[in-house]
UniProtKB/TrEMBL annotation:
Family classification: Belongs to the major facilitator superfamily. Proton-dependent oligopeptide transporter (POT/PTR) (TC 2.A.17) family.
Membrane topology: Multi-pass membrane protein
Species for this entry: Trifolium medium
Primary localization: membrane
Protein known as: Putative peptide transporter
Short name of one Pfam family: PTR2
Keywords noted in UniProt: Membrane, Transmembrane, Transmembrane helix
Molecular-function GO terms, alphabetical: transmembrane transporter activity
GO CC annotation terms, alphabetical: membrane
Length: 305
């Protein structure tokens, strides 16, 4: 359908004497059409990355950390806002482990270069992100029960006898998810788009984060309005012990699971990527070379007169 935009129907009415289009809105170049087709083809997979920003935006790790024991020693207490460093550290550590240890080791074991495609890394990131939310919801359920048991239901400043380092698993999973999905997205866009669209490829990830933050705000407000109807205490409360942030996490985890299924459908519909096609072609070339070097044994022998 989009190819019709570059079809010349009436030459004199659409083409200027210098060969350019009189009205660019009525006649486009082949490159313009192909660039638009590339963007349209990528949009479904791009939309799955919005959930990553929604997951991060829906995190209440700061409130959780403030309600937990953050002392490393009797005289030193880690600020609640500093616990997000764990996620960043997990991201960088995983990138180093993945590129410098895991991939080289797997390649050495298999005897050939091993590489996980960008599309698969995006999917792995979404899966780990789902596990991150499940872990966060489970931990918040345990933390809230302990807060009620210790009598801090109405105390917004109460500190539980529970180490804040229990937040580390969910934060590490969040960092690993971002390492897989974020880097996979950038690589996917750069490989699928032509070089003339490198600026578009660079901006798509940022656009996904913006869209994710908007969706996160919408979901946050909607859940708060729905759960606080009739003067009831909503899930989103200033008092983390009175609120039901665990249920909020479970709702977001449900969205994440649906998003993972949506990604699988989009990935299947998208088909092979440029890298996968080139890899398949190179494998075919290697097979043909080996076939020429080692002819089939079923070939009849040559007769010598």
């Amino acid at each position: 359908f989009l190819n019709k935009a570059c079809v010349i129907k009436e030459h004199e009415q659409v083409i200027a004497p210098d060969g350019s289009a009189i009205n660019p809105w009525r006649l486009c170049t082949v490159d313009q059409v192909e660039e638009l087709k590339a963007i349209v083809r990528v949009i479904p997979l791009w939309s799955t990355g919005i959930m990553m920003s929604l997951n991060i935006g829906g995190s209440f790790g700061l409130l959780q950390a403030k309600s937990l024991d953050r002392h490393i020693t009797s005289h030193f207490e880690v600020p609640a806002g500093s616990f997000s460093v764990i996620m960043v550290a997990a991201l960088f550590i995983w990138i180093v482990l993945y590129n410098r240890i895991l991939i080289p080791l797997a390649s050495k074991i298999r005897g050939k270069p091993i590489r996980i495609s960008a599309k698969r890394r995006m999917g792995i990131g979404l899966l780990v992100s789902f596990l991150h939310l499940v872990t966060a919801a489970t931990f918040e359920t345990i933390r809230r029960k302990k807060a009620i048991k210790e009598g801090y239901l109405n105390d917004t400043h109460g500190v539980l006898k529970m180490s804040a380092l229990w937040l580390a698993p969910q934060l590490c999973l969040g960092g690993i998810a971002e390492a897989f999905n974020g880097i996979g997205q950038n690589e996917f866009y750069y490989t699928e788009f032509p070089r003339t669209m490198s600026s578009v490829a660079a901006s798509l990830s940022g656009l996904g984060m913006v869209a994710g933050n908007l969706v996160s705000s919408f979901v946050f407000i909607t859940i708060e309005n729905v759960t606080s109807r009739g003067g009831k205490e909503g899930w989103i409360s200033d008092n983390i012990n009175k609120g039901r942030f665990d249920k909020y996490y479970w709702v977001i985890a449900g969205f994440s699971a649906l998003n993972l299924l949506y990604y699988l459908v989009c990935s299947w519909a998208y088909g092979p990527t440029v890298d996968e096609v080139s890899k398949c072609n190179s494998s075919s070339v290697e097979v043909n070379k080996k076939a020429r070097v080692h002819p089939s044994s079923s070939q009849p022998p040559l007769k010598v007169n």
